[in-house]
Design a protein that fits this description.
The structure holds three protein chains of three kinds.
Chain A (H helix, E strand, L loop, with lengths): L7 H18 L8 H23 L4 E14 L5 E11 L1 H26 L6 H19 L4 H19 L7 H31 L10 H11 L2 E2 L2 E2 H19 L8 H4 L5 H9 L2 H11 L1 H5 L2 H22 L5 H21 L3 H28 L12 H4 L1 H15 L5 H17 L3 H29 L6 H4 L6 H16 L6 H7 L5 H6 L11 H7 L10 H27 L12 H8 L4 H46 L7 H23 L4
Antiparallel strand pairs in A: 1-2, 3-4
Chain B lengths: L4 H21 L3 H26 L3 H31 L13
Chain C lengths: L1 H4 L7 H19 L6 H25 L12 E3 L4 E3 L1 H24 L6 H20 L3 H19 L6 H32 L4 H14 L5 H19 L7 H8 L2 H26 L2 H8 L4 H20 L4 H21 L6 H31 L11 H4 L1 H15 L5 H15 L3 H27 L13 H16 L4 H16 L1
Antiparallel strand pairs in C: 1-2
Helix pairs in contact in C: 2-3, 2-5, 3-4, 3-5, 4-5, 4-11, 4-15, 4-20, 5-6, 5-11, 6-7, 6-11, 7-9, 7-10, 8-11, 8-12, 9-11, 10-11, 10-14, 11-14, 11-15, 13-14, 13-19, 14-15, 14-18, 14-19, 15-17, 15-18, 15-20, 15-21, 17-19, 17-20, 18-19
The chains are: A mainly alpha, B mainly alpha, C mainly alpha.
Membrane topology (chain C): Multi-pass membrane protein
Keywords (chain C): Membrane, Transmembrane, Transmembrane helix
Subcellular location (chain C): Membrane
């Protein structure tokens, strides 16, 4: 496997080439650019799998490929010179993520054949070009070896999501949703950018890994106990970490920057699948995992991550309960699930967070593609109240969707259960010692109930009961290109959990924690970037209730119980031939939830009520004070000019007098300076 | 008995200032020219006095050159004054003020 | 190399060629003063100056005056009264180029003038004086060369004998000039009195020994003398407060003569200032004796000159007068070269030398455009120039180049020299001067672009006859424009030459 890493750049370059081809020649290609896209992502998948194999045989790859700028500034920690580079870092985490991203991208491309091409959409070259660029950006982001490169591709990911969400730019809502997604995530990215600059200025390096990394430098700085920019080193690490976290909150749609994600449904469903499962939203959480060593140095940041994650998990889950649009429900479930991942990472459950990231990628892609399939079946109807009874008419869609739903709800033994349970377990044991984490855990636990409820409400409304519209009675058939990705993802949603059966290990001692070993570097990793190394940095205490086994039982039992009860309530209410709307019974609470807790309203108010007047005031200041000053200067200059030229009177005797006067003034000045008159 | 060098300098400065005064007050172009001559000759006094004081001839030679140059200058000046009179019917230097500001 | 075999006086070849041309034209004038054979006369003048230019360039390339293995070292002639070194040759090149341009342009401009030969003869005599100024190494030769340049200039400005403007300009130029030269001569006499020498290096030696012994008794005289010398240079370079002649002289003079005076004469004024202040008055010794650093005077003069020039130019209605004031402003920029000498770096003086070369092209070109406009008879104000671009696009495009180069817009030669002046000023620690440079350049853009706007964007007045295309003027303008642009890629050698010359002076 020696030379396999030489092909690493190709993983990202393939989709880039597909992007160029689709853009340049898409119109003339038989499938309007789909074929190059499928081939490129297929190639990326193959290479990524090779990387995975190579990493599992104990190799890692960390190489700077290109230095595009260098300076000789000295950082706050005394590092002289800084170089900005492009490089590739492939360690177990990156390799795993590469496979996930390229797999989902590949399946989305295949699915698009059925979803976009077969439905006679126009503008397909643009669509496939967008997908290609999106995949390229995400893959490059995943194996970026430094923070600045990561930031650049992070931004590019944001741009691509803008382009794709606004794909149907002739509608009214799509461009608006695209702008919203772009602006909200950019808002977070400003903080990220400041964070990048701060880290660069502080440590003189932006590398993720190695002795030269900013993580190592930060650790040294904290150990030395000095101050950075007037702050205690630890505080400064917290500040910079939080700044970077701003970008994460935006991209991963965490409270309060989650508002863009539900609107992003305006894009094609395939794009939603890509955004939610593997690219855009995943980028945020992946970034936290990527620089986990840095966050591990700051307990405050971790606690904030955990709390925000737990809160978002519950918050979004409640909103998902009342939605009628199948994609809306899924969107809120995404926010909620990423909340779990943040909770997991925040409590130090690095493996649990990454595990859930992986599982979620599979089952959420599955659910979205399933929803896409349903939309095709339903002749582009998305309202669940108009569906029903699709179970028998589209068995493949139904059973794969059901698998995804079971995983999402966290029902044993589907994949979601294992990872979610591990997150909650990690949060629970830390929470026993730390009240804040306990609160986050409690919210995460409560969210389990709502997750079970809205998931099965969605399943029952869509597939069970009697058809409630003509479209549902006579669904449009779907082809293999839709079914095949569903089946692949359906299988993965069922079995992916086997990658890390932590509770089984803890209860029976069977070594079934493959992912943990993988991330802990048992097969090979870069020093300092392993679960074990992070564990040493963490300052968390953990507790148990009775014995470890008992704790595992309690945690798993609680979450399962809640998941089942949520599902059960949904069963009771909606698994009937003619389900009715219960929302009115929620009264005022329902109104608030239906309105998404007025999140949009207050953000719009912030924009229109606060920012806009401020901008107006600034504009007025610019128009009057600044421009006035500029105009004043010019008027004064011209006036001065008019006066000044009057000394040229035209009378030569005056000139002689002025000349002599000027000479005498010069004489006096010099004489005064030279002390001639003393 | 020798006269101190400072008296020569004072004399030349006096002459220089007289010339300057003439330039500033006289409006007749010819008087202007004469005043300039006074100033140049003040310089000549200096040159010759200092040549004597320093004991080299450089200053005296330069004084000769200066006189020649002054003569050339006057020649040009008279030419200009001639055409001035032809165009403006006057040799008052404050009359031509068509160009100003 | 061939130069080695030439006798030493041959180093003065550019000056001698100019003088010879002048005398030939003078002889012609004596024999046939009313000849209107413009081709022969203008041709002789142009060829003479071009040959002088060629020889000067050849000498520079061959390394005459350059130190080191390649060069021949500075050549001193007549017991050091004259010296031919890199700086002398550099300024001879500027003078010769401008003279050639002016001669070619005058072919058309002076059409109809009765006495042709005397005009060219005077131009060449003045050019000889300026070239000699570049080589003068003693206060005697400086004075003579300066007068040799000035006296024909007075006559040239007043040469349109029936034009009241020309006469008035000549009178004012002459009167201020006479006053200034009287002050200058008096300054020389004082410096001579204080040191006993007129040769520049002898003065320096005297001052250095005097400063070392502490027995120097005439600090006051010396200080006053130096200040009066500065007055003389300020007159020649049109710097405040000796600038009063300039607006009128440039406005009233025939436009080619205005170009000649504002470019070549100014450059010559700077070369003697550079030489006198770098050779004769070593900074440390002089300031020890007179108690003040003479660069202070130049700092003040530079700031005041550029401010007065640019501010007065801003609201002019007459294009030629605007250029006249802008010329004063540029003198202020070039004075930075002397103001910055205190830091002991050759960069800032080299930058001033570069600026004078570039200025030689762009300013001459601009004045020649005015000559062209006067030749067309379109009028003198900005409004009169409206819409000329539609009729004469080539010349007007050249004008755009001149204006933007004068303003210092990046791709053009004027930007680079100004940029070097700016960095030089910063390096010398003259932040105020650098700031003044920036402010004034910004202001200058206003009035330069006003002209561009008038020419290209304003509607022409209702009826305008078709405009002729005089060959000589066009050739000169186009050549100046091309050089202004070509100096951009060719700036490397120019920078090198100027910096070498400046370094040789300071070392």
């Amino acid at each position: 496997m020696e030379g396999v890493f030489d092909f690493a750049p190709a993983i990202a370059v393939f989709p880039l080439v597909a992007f160029v081809i689709a853009l340049a020649f898409g119109k003339h290609l038989p499938k309007k650019g789909a074929i190059p896209g499928i081939l490129a992502t297929g190639g990326s998948l193959l290479l990524s799998a090779l990387m995975l194999v190579a990493v599992s045989s104990g190799e890692v790859y960390h190489e700077t490929l290109y230095e595009w700028a260098a300076g000789d500034a000295t950082s706050a920690t005394g590092v002289e010179g800084i170089a900005f580079t492009f490089g590739i870092l492939i360690d177990p985490l990156a390799a795993l993520m590469l496979v996930i991203v390229s797999l989902v991208a590949f399946l989305v491309h295949v699915f698009s054949l059925g979803y976009m091409n077969a439905e006679g959409e126009t503008g397909l070259p643009r669509y496939y070009a967008g997908l290609g660029l999106f995949t390229f950006s995400m893959l490059a982001f995943v194996y970026a070896d430094n923070l600045l490169m990561a930031f650049m591709f992070f931004e590019l990911v944001g741009l691509c999501s803008f382009l794709l969400i606004g794909f149907w730019f002739r509608t009214k809502s799509a461009p608006s949703a695209a702008k919203k997604a772009f602006l909200v995530t950019r808002f977070g990215d400003y903080f990220f950018l400041i964070g990048v600059v701060a880290i660069a200025a502080t440590f003189g390096t932006l590398q993720f890994a190695g002795d030269e990394s900013f993580v190592a430098a930060a650790q040294t700085a904290i150990d030395d106990g000095g101050t950075l920019f007037g702050f205690d080193a630890q505080t400064w690490v917290t500040i910079t970490g939080l700044l970077v976290l701003g970008g994460v909150l935006g991209k991963s749609a965490q409270f309060p920057l989650h508002t863009w994600l539900p609107d992003a449904m305006e894009g094609p469903t395939t794009v939603s699948a890509l955004i939610h499962a593997a690219t855009m939203v995943a980028a945020g959480v992946y970034l936290v995992a990527r620089m986990f060593g840095y966050y591990a140095l700051s307990p405050t940041t971790l606690a904030i991550i955990a709390f925000v994650g737990g809160f978002t998990a519950l918050f979004a889950a409640t909103m998902g309960v009342v939605k009628d649009d199948i994609k809306q429900v899924l969107a809120y479930s995404t926010i909620s699930q990423y909340g779990y991942m943040m909770l997991g990472l925040g409590v130090g459950g690095y493996v649990a967070g990454v595990f859930h990231l992986m599982n979620h990628a599979f089952f959420k892609a599955l659910l979205f593609l399933g929803a896409g399939s349903v939309i095709v079946l339903m002749h582009h109807e998305q309202d669940m109240w108009k569906m029903g009874g699709l179970k028998d008419k589209a068995p493949v869609t139904y059973y794969t969707f059901l698998a995804g739903a079971l995983a999402l709800a966290g029902i044993i033994p589907f994949s979601g259960f294992w990872s979610k349970d591990e997150i909650l377990y990690d949060a629970f044991i830390v929470g026993l010692e730390e009240p804040v984490i306990m609160a986050a855990y409690a919210m995460g636990l409560a969210a389990v109930f709502f997750t079970g409820f809205y998931t099965f409400r969605m399943v029952f409304l869509t597939f069970h009961g009697e058809p409630r519209s003509e479209a549902a009675e006579d669904p449009h058939p779907v082809g293999w290109s839709i079914k095949a990705p569903l089946i692949v993802l359906g299988v993965l949603a069922v079995v992916a959990g086997a990658a890390n059966l932590a509770p089984v290990y803890k209860l029976t001692g069977l070594e079934l924690t493959f992912l943990e070993s993988w991330l802990d570097g048992e097969y090979g990793a870069i020093e300092g970037l392993t679960y074990g190394a992070y564990g040493e940095l963490l300052a968390y205490e953990t507790g148990v209730v009775g014995t470890e086994q008992l704790t595992v039982m309690i945690a798993a039992g609680l979450s399962l119980l809640l998941a089942f009860s949520g599902a059960g309530v949904a069963w009771k209410l909606y698994n009937v031939p003619e389900p009715v709307v219960y929302r009115d019974r929620l009264g005022r609470v329902g109104d608030v939830i239906e309105a998404n807790y007025y999140q949009d309203e207050y953000q719009v108010w912030l924009a229109e009520g606060v920012t806009l007047p401020l901008a107006r005031a600034a504009d007025r200041f610019d128009q009057t004070a600044i421009d006035g000053a500029v105009d004043g200067v010019s008027t004064a200059s011209l006036f001065g000019s008019d006066r000044l030229k009057r000394i040229q009177t035209g009378i030569v005797t005056n000139y002689a007098a002025l000349l002599v006067t000027g000479f005498i003034v010069l004489l006096l000045v010099l004489g005064y300076a030279g002390g001639w008159f003393l | 008995m020798t006269v101190g060098i400072e008296y020569y300098v004072l004399l030349s400065m006096l002459l220089f200032c007289i010339g300057l005064f003439g330039i500033l007050t006289r409006r007749n172009a010819l008087m202007f020219l004469m005043s300039v001559e006074l100033m140049v000759n003040a310089a000549n006094i200096n040159l010759i006095a200092f040549a004597f004081y320093h004991g080299n001839l450089t200053g005296q030679v330069l004084a000769l050159f200066v006189m020649a140059l002054a003569a050339a200058e006057v020649a040009i000046g008279l030419g200009i004054i001639l055409v001035l009179y032809r165009n403006f019917r006057d040799v008052d230097v404050t009359v031509p003020t068509t160009m100003r500001w | 190399m061939a130069v080695v075999e030439l006798p030493e006086w041959a180093a003065l070849a550019p000056v001698l060629i100019l003088a010879g041309t002048a005398l030939a034209l003078f002889v012609f004038d004596s024999i046939n003063p009313r000849s209107t054979n413009r081709t022969v006369l203008a041709g002789t003048a142009a060829i003479g100056s071009l040959v002088a230019l060629g020889v000067a360039v050849w000498f520079t390339v061959a390394g005459v005056g350059a130190s080191g293995l390649e060069g021949f070292g500075a050549i001193e002639l007549f017991d050091g009264q004259l010296v031919v070194d890199q700086m002398a040759l550099y300024f001879m090149i500027i003078v010769a180029v401008v003279t050639a341009l002016v001669s070619v342009a005058s072919y058309d401009y002076m059409e109809g003038h009765t006495y042709q030969a005397e005009y060219y003869s005077l131009v060449m005599l003045a050019a000889t004086g300026m070239a000699t100024m570049a080589a003068a190494n003693s206060l005697v030769t400086i004075l003579i060369a300066l007068e040799l340049a000035s006296l024909p200039s007075y006559a040239l400005v007043a040469i349109l004998k029936d034009n009241r403007g020309s006469i008035e300009a000549g009178l004012k130029y002459f009167l201020i000039g006479a006053l200034s030269s009287a002050i200058f001569v008096y300054g020389i006499s004082l410096v001579y009195g204080a040191t006993g020498y007129l040769q520049l290096d002898a003065i320096a030696t005297q001052l250095e020994t005097g400063a070392a012994d502490g027995e120097f008794a005439y600090g006051g005289l010396l200080g006053l003398g130096i200040l009066m010398l500065i007055g003389g240079f300020a007159f020649k370079t049109a710097s405040v407060p000796f600038h009063f002649w300039a607006p009128e002289a440039y406005e009233g003079a025939p436009a080619p003569i205005a170009a000649f005076l504002s470019s070549a004469s100014k450059a010559a004024g700077f070369v003697i200032a550079f030489r006198v202040f770098t050779t004769a008055f070593p900074l440390d010794a002089t300031s020890a004796l007179i108690g003040v650093d003479w660069t202070l005077a130049f700092v003040i003069l530079a700031i005041v000159t550029m401010t007065v020039g640019n501010f007065a130019a801003a609201t002019q209605q007459n294009v030629k007068r605007m250029l006249a004031y802008s010329s004063i402003g540029h003198a202020g920029y070039a004075l930075i070269g002397l103001a910055g000498l205190g830091a002991g770096s050759e960069l800032v003086m080299g930058a001033a030398m570069m600026h004078l070369l570039v200025y030689g092209f762009m300013n001459t070109g601009a004045f020649l455009f005015v000559a062209l406009a006067e030749h067309w008879g379109v009028g003198r104000t900005f409004e009169d120039y409206n819409g000329l671009g539609q009729r004469a696009p080539v010349a007007c495009f050249a004008l755009v180049i001149f204006m933007f180069s004068l303003a210092g817009i990046p791709p053009l030669g004027g930007f680079w020299s100004k940029y070097f002046l700016f960095t030089g000023a910063i390096e010398a620690g003259l932040l105020v001067v650098a700031a003044a440079l920036i402010v004034n350049s910004a202001l200058s853009l206003y009035y330069y672009s006003r002209l561009v706007k008038a020419v290209w964007f304003e509607e022409p007045p209702a009826a305008r006859d078709s405009l002729g295309q005089p060959t000589g003027l066009y050739a000169a303008i186009v050549f100046a424009a091309v050089m202004t642009v070509v100096l951009l890629p060719g700036f490397g050698p120019v920078v090198e030459t100027a910096l070498d010359a400046a370094a040789a002076m300071i070392a």
